Each structure stands twice: as structure tokens, then as C-alpha cells.
């Protein structure tokens, strides 16, 4: 009897599948679930976890929280991050302190793996959600993440 | 309604009266070719739109109003493309294969009765001719796969051979079940019989089983998903037409869609009364038969598209198990039941 029950179950499951897709078909009038990209360019916001490019957020005083520890540079598997750093004397404590001169990010080499963002102890770098990243010259893909004249926020220690 | 010119007369009025015999046949063939080439293109568009709706997408919507000219643009592109091929291909067979496929599928269209009068050729063994012609098409696929000198093409073509030889039995037997009721193979006769109720109603349970078997086997005959092992993209690239480009590829592509139309048209003619309107609502206007025929056919075409966008592809062994262990025995039992029903006059007649 398993022969007949096989046929019965086969037809039943096929009809179940067809009813599922049939419901989708009937609901397709309510609009597509896909993004109509070039049309909705002004309103399209990528989701939070989207990895566009690495950026360094600065606050209103032009301060970032990068201490120049170079952990991101070490974590990067293909050398996309280069940090040019220097030592200065801290005015408050009088001790020598490491600061960054330039946090150079080669976006052209970056594979968006996210290891640098995970490695950063002070959350100085994070992912931006932009995605229209094409340029006419690849030198434009080499970016300096810290803004000119910016300095590390007070209280962020290595 | 004699005042209404039926479409057949319209066609005949286009053709000058002094042209008869072979030139007339050639002209009718050209008209059919034109109409069904355009129909094939729009079936491609319909397939893409239906696929989009099943997956909650929009589908082609850029070329023309709601993308209506998309497949025209695609066809133009394919016409203008270079015809490439493999160096070691068997050139003669390689060039012959697409024509084999497209000609057989266009030949089958000639014998469908679109209305009472609009039928290019009323063959008295119509159904038999359809079954025969649908199995010639596979020779084109085998030729294409063999002569391309490509292992993917060859595997695809051999799978097609296995598939078509197996499923032909089911197509033939399920249609034979209905022939027991109609007692004729002539398509116009088959439609005539259905004036007492569509055959799917006349034959009730065995007819419904035969219809289900026919739709499954018909989907397999046209090499469409879930039976598309012939061109299984993830395994074989594009199967037998891997090495074809431009217009030769377009012939294969068009033939696939016209074959789908043919399978749906056979089902319409044999199970759903062909050009007859439901309950005879438009019996007084004969030319509306074209509308009813196409409406029924496109509903069945939609059903086949529904299959395609729902079911995953079968393995080869599952395909053969389905045919030889399930469809064939069911069909044989079904044909005996139908014979008993016809013998005892248990069919439902209005």
C-alpha cells in the first residue's frame, strides 16, 4: 500500500508547493520586494550591517577616537590600511604619547572583510553604508580617514 | 451569423483568388510562421513576467509600455549577433539541428482547429501526427548535442533522448485514453464530440487522471523545469545548445516556447473542448472560438509556468522512476477503466 500512499503524498506535497507560490503570485500586485535601484536612488538607505567602506567618525570638535595603536593595520589581511604616526608630549601629563598623522585607507585593495573594524579597541573606525563607490581614477580610492587638523578625543587611551 | 466574416475568410480574402495549390499553401504557411514567431516572442515575455510575479519582482519594464517590446529587442539583438561554433563541430549536422527543432514545432501548429473554419490542414490522424512530430523534435536536439563536439552538449542531448523516449509513452497513452471516448483521431472530430460536454467532464475520473498525466508528461516533453535536465544550467552550462549563438540559439529558444504552446493546445483540444465556449455561451458567434481557444491554451501555459517556478529539478533516476514506476502503470490502469466506462456507457453526456 505504500505505492498508493506515495502517490497520494506526492500529489499532496506538489499541491502544497503550488499553493505557496500561488499565494506569492496573487500578492505580487502589492508591489515588488526588490529595490528599484536607479529610480529610488534618493531614498534608498542600505541596512545597518551593510559594508560599504571604512570611515572614521569625527565629532563636532573635529575629534576622533583613533589612538594610533595600529591594530587595524595588523589585522588587515591585504595591507589596505597604512598608519603614519608620530610621538608627541602630552601637555597634561608630560609623557610621550603616540598620535596618528594620517590613517591611510586603500579602498581599491579592501575586500570588505571587516577584520579592522573588529580589531579596533576604541571603535574609531566603522562601516559606512554608501555603495556608489566607482571613480574614474584609482588614486581617488586611496583615502585619508582622519580629517585635517583633527586630534584624538580626550580620555581615549590605548 | 453569416454577416460576420470568420477569420478564415479574412485570410482567404487577402490571398488573390487565382493563387491556388502550392502557392496558396506557401502563403498560409508564411502567415502562420509570422503569427507564431510573434506569439513565441510574447510567450517568452509572458514567461519572464510570470516568473517575476512569482518571485515578487517587476520583470522587464523598460522597453516599450511595461516592457512589451523587450523580447522584440532581444530578437533583434540575436539576429545581429555573430554565429560562432566549435572548430571540430560536424558543420553540416551542427547547422541542420536548429532547423529540425523549429520546423517540427511549427509543423505541429498547422493542424490545430482554432475555430470551426480556421484550420490549416484537417488531418484524419491528427492526434497521431502530433505525437509523431513531437518525437521528431528530439532528433534535432540529439543532432545539436552530438555535432557540437562538446561534452556538456552531448550529455544534455543524451538526457533529452532518455527523457523524450520515456515520456512519449505517457503522452501517447493519456491521449489514447481520450480517443476511446472520441473514437476519432481527427482534431475537428474530437472537438465536435465535445459539443455534448468537454471530454474532461464526459470522461470524469479517468479523464482527470489522464489530464494530470498528460500535463506532467507534456512538461517533460518540452524539456521545461522541473524536467529541464537537458539544459540544467547548474550542471551542464546550457546543455545541448551550449555552442549555439545568435539566431541558431534563438531557434532552439523559440521552439521551446512554441512546444509549450503546442502541449497546452493539445490539452485544450482534447480535454477542454478546443474552440467551444463554456456552456455554449457564444455559440452564435463562431469567430469567438479563436478567443476561447487561446484563452484556454494560455491558462494551461500559465499552469506550466506555475510548475516551472515552483518545483525543483528532478534527478535523472527520479525522472525515470516517475515515468516507469508511476505514470506508466497509472496510465495503463486508467485506459482499462476508461474502456469499461465507454463500454458500459457511464460517461457523462449533456
From TrEMBL, chain A:
Signal peptide range in chain numbering: none
Alphabetical list of InterPro entries matching this protein: 4Fe4S_Fe-S-bd (IPR017896), 4Fe4S_Fe_S_CS (IPR017900), NADH_quinone_OxRdtase_chainI (IPR010226)
PROSITE patterns noted in UniProt: 4FE4S_FER_1, 4FE4S_FER_2
This protein's record includes keyword Ligase: no
The protein's name: 4Fe-4S dicluster domain-containing protein
SUPFAM superfamilies registered for this protein in UniProt: 4Fe-4S ferredoxins
Record key words, sorted: 4Fe-4S, Cell membrane, Iron, Iron-sulfur, Membrane, Metal-binding, NAD, Quinone, Repeat, Translocase, Ubiquinone
Keyword Aminoacyl-tRNA synthetase: no
Ranges for domain 4Fe-4S ferredoxin-type: 57-86, 101-130
Pfam families xrefs: Fer4_7
Automatic annotation (TrEMBL), chain B:
Chief location category: membrane
SUBUNIT field: NDH-1 is composed of 14 different subunits. Subunits NuoA, H, J, K, L, M, N constitute the membrane sector of the complex.
HAMAP family hit by this protein: NDH1_NuoH (MF_01350)
Keywords tagged on the record: Cell membrane, Membrane, NAD, Oxidoreductase, Quinone, Translocase, Transmembrane, Transmembrane helix, Ubiquinone
Presence of keyword Lipid metabolism: no
Cell location: Cell membrane; Membrane
Enzyme class label: translocase
Family note: Belongs to the complex I subunit 1 family.
Function (record text): NDH-1 shuttles electrons from NADH, via FMN and iron-sulfur (Fe-S) centers, to quinones in the respiratory chain. The immediate electron acceptor for the enzyme in this species is believed to be ubiquinone. Couples the redox reaction to proton translocation (for every two electrons transferred, four hydrogen ions are translocated across the cytoplasmic membrane), and thus conserves the redox energy in a proton gradient. This subunit may bind ubiquinone.
Record membrane topology: Multi-pass membrane protein
Keyword Isomerase applies: no
Gene name of this polypeptide: nuoH
Name of the protein this chain belongs to: NADH-quinone oxidoreductase subunit H
NCBIfam families referenced in this protein's UniProt entry, alphabetically: PRK06076.1-2
TM region positions: 25-45, 92-113, 125-146, 167-185, 197-217, 249-273, 285-306, 326-346
GO molecular function: oxidoreductase activity
EC annotation from Swiss-Prot or TrEMBL: 7.1.1.-
InterPro entries referenced in this protein's UniProt entry, alphabetically: NADH_UbQ_OxRdtase_su1/FPO, NADH_UbQ_OxRdtase_su1_CS
Catalytic activity annotation: a quinone + NADH + 5 H(+)(in) = a quinol + NAD(+) + 4 H(+)(out)
Superkingdom of origin organism: Bacteria
Amino acid at each position: 500500500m505504500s505505492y498508493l500512499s506515495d502517490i497520494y503524498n506526492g500529489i499532496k506535497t506538489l499541491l502544497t508547493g503550488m499553493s505557496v507560490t500561488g499565494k506569492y503570485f496573487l500578492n505580487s500586485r502589492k508591489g515588488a520586494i526588490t529595490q528599484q535601484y536607479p529610480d529610488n536612488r534618493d531614498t534608498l538607505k542600505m541596512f545597518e550591517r551593510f559594508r560599504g567602506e571604512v570611515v572614521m567618525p569625527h565629532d563636532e570638535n573635529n575629534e576622533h577616537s583613533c589612538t594610533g595603536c595600529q591594530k587595524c593595520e595588523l589585522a588587515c589581511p591585504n595591507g589596505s590600511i597604512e598608519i603614519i604616526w608620530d610621538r608627541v608630549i602630552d601637555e597634561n601629563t608630560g609623557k610621550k604619547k603616540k598620535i596618528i598623522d594620517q590613517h591611510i585607507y586603500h579602498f581599491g585593495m579592501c575586500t570588505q572583510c571587516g577584520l579592522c573594524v573588529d580589531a579596533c579597541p576604541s571603535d574609531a573606525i566603522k562601516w559606512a553604508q554608501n555603495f556608489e563607490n566607482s571613480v574614474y581614477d584609482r588614486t581617488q580610492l586611496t583615502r585619508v580617514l582622519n580629517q585635517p587638523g583633527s586630534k584624538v578625543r580626550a580620555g581615549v587611551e590605548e | 451569423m453569416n454577416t460576420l466574416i470568420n477569420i478564415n475568410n479574412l485570410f482567404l480574402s487577402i490571398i488573390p483568388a487565382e493563387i491556388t495549390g502550392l502557392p496558396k499553401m506557401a502563403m498560409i504557411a508564411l502567415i502562420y510562421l509570422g503569427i507564431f514567431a510573434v506569439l513565441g516572442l510574447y510567450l517568452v515575455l509572458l514567461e519572464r513576467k510570470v516568473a517575476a510575479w512569482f518571485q515578487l519582482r517587476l520583470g522587464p519594464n523598460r522597453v516599450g509600455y511595461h516592457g512589451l517590446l523587450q523580447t522584440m529587442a532581444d530578437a533583434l539583438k540575436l539576429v545581429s549577433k555573430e554565429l560562432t561554433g566549435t572548430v571540430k563541430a560536424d558543420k553540416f549536422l551542427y547547422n541542420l539541428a536548429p532547423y529540425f527543432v523549429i520546423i517540427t514545432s511549427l509543423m505541429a501548429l498547422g493542424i490545430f482547429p482554432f475555430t470551426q473554419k480556421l484550420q490549416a490542414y484537417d488531418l484524419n490522424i491528427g492526434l497521431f501526427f502530433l505525437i509523431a512530430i513531437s518525437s521528431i523534435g528530439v532528433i534535432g536536439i540529439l543532432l545539436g548535442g552530438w555535432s557540437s563536439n562538446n561534452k556538456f552538449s552531448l550529455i544534455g542531448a543524451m538526457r533529452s533522448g532518455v527523457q523524450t523516449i520515456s515520456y512519449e509513452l505517457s503522452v501517447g497513452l493519456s491521449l489514447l485514453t481520450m480517443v476511446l471516448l472520441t473514437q476519432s483521431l481527427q482534431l475537428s472530430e474530437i472537438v465536435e464530440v465535445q459539443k455534448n460536454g468537454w471530454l474532461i467532464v464526459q470522461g470524469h475520473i479517468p479523464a482527470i487522471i489522464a489530464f494530470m498525466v498528460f500535463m506532467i508528461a507534456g512538461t517533460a516533453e518540452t524539456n521545461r523545469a522541473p524536467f529541464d535536465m537537458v539544459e540544467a544550467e547548474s550542471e551542464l552550462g546550457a546543455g545541448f545548445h551550449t555552442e549555439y549563438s545568435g539566431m541558431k540559439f534563438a531557434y532552439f529558444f523559440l521552439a521551446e516556447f512554441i512546444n509549450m504552446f503546442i502541449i497546452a493546445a493539445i490539452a485544450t483540444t482534447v480535454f477542454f473542448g478546443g474552440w467551444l465556449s463554456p456552456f455554449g455561451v457564444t455559440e452564435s458567434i463562431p469567430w469567438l472560438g479563436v478567443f476561447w481557444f487561446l484563452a484556454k491554451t494560455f491558462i494551461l501555459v500559465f499552469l506550466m509556468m506555475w510548475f516551472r517556478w515552483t518545483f525543483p529539478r528532478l534527478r535523472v533516476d527520479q525522472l525515470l522512476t516517475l515515468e516507469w514506476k508511476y505514470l506508466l502503470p497509472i496510465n495503463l490502469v486508467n485506459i482499462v477503466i476508461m474502456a469499461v466506462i465507454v463500454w458500459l456507457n457511464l460517461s457523462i453526456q449533456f
